[in-house]
Amino acid sequence: MGAGRVGTAMAVLLSRAGHRIVAVSGGSQTPDRAAAFLPGVPVRSNEEAIRGAEVVLLGTPDAAIEPACAALAAAGAIEAGVALAHLSGATGLEALASARRAGARILSTHPLQSCPDVQAGIDRIPGSAFAVSAADETGYALGERLARDVGGRPFRLDDRMKPLYHAAAVFASNYLVAVTALAERLERTAGVPDPLGALGPLQRGTLENVEALGPSAALTGPAVRGDAPTVERNLAALSHHAPGAVAAYVALADVALALAVDAGRLDPERRAAVEEVLARWR
After folding, report:
1. Domains in the chain, start-ordered, CATH in brackets?
2. What is the DSSP string of 16-65?
3. Taking the model in full, what pTM does it have?
4. CA 245 → CA 7, 188, 202, 235, 251, distances in Å?
5. In what order do the strands lie in the sheet with 129-134?
6. What is the pLDDT along the chain (282 residues), one digit of tens a residue?
7. How far apart are alpha carbons 145 and 152 in whole angstroms?
């Protein structure tokens, strides 16, 4: 249900693992998507798609999970004993409460991966971590099995911690994109040709360092060095050419300073010098 990018990719991978996809449902693009990636699988309405299924995966947008589930329950489409799992990383199991009252086993299984299209999901989901939350042990076991069957690496996540878990994913993925867009604009303003091409090797090397060494040891730059003059020059340049970026620079410099201090890589005197500069630009 909700056979979008992630839902369709999951269906393809589950089919390859030997599961039988009995039907899909979704929006206006679902028939074309199903024809391309799930030939022979019928496209039906939500209520018709889940009838007779043993496991139902909800790949709808977060805000649609609860109303979609409630509509299915109200229509009497949820059969007792069916397992109903949503794929959201931010939404808790309470969104499936109406299905549980109708006799369904509820759970969620979320691939910790960015899937800009179906093919990217098919390529990237195998090997990705999967957060599994459930209301009982049987639900956890099913969520872990589904994750493993698509090549994922499942771990159990307390349902109450999902918003925090998802916030971490936003920092790691969405904000990485946002910061890259800002860096690209600054480099372009500075006169760097092909900014993304110039920044790409730096970013890939940084991520490799983080993976190999951990964030504390991989951190470089003026904050961890306690290089207050460079921080001052950076901020002065931003103020002149991109004043909207000053607040972001200061906020991220605070985070970098804290990481450097916690790692024991910055003495109090140099920390104080950088903090003095940042204070002038808040």
Report:
1. 5-157 (3.40.50.720), 165-280 (1.10.1040)
2. HTT-----B--STTHHHHHHHHSTTPPB--HHHHHTT-SEEEE-S-HHHH
3. 0.93
4. 37, 14, 20, 9, 10
5. 55-58, 83-86, 105-111, 129-134, 153-156
6. 999 999 999 999 999 999 999 999 999 999 999 999 999 999 999 999 999 899 999 999 999 999 999 999 999 999 999 999 999 999 999 999 999 999 999 999 999 999 999 999 999 999 999 999 999 999 999 999 999 999 999 999 999 999 999 999 999 999 999 999 999 999 999 999 999 999 999 999 999 999 999 999 999 999 999 999 999 999 999 999 999 999 999 999 999 999 999 999 999 999 999 999 999 999
7. 9
Which residue has 């949503």 as its token pair? 86
Locate 163 and state its tokens.
């918003």
Q: Which residues of 36-75 are buried (b: 16+ CB within 10 A; e: fewer)?
A: ebbeebebbebeebbeebebbbbbbeeebbbebbbebbee
Other Cβ atoms closer than 10 A to 168: 12
The CA dihedral of 72, 77, 79, 84, to the nearest 10 degrees, is: -40
Can you tell me which residue has the tokens 């496209």?
A: 43
Q: What is the DSSP letter of 87?
A: -
H/E/C letters for each residue in 183-240?
Answer: HHHHHHHHCCCCHHHHHHHHHHHHHHHHHHHCHHHHCCCHHHHCCHHHHHHHHHHHHH
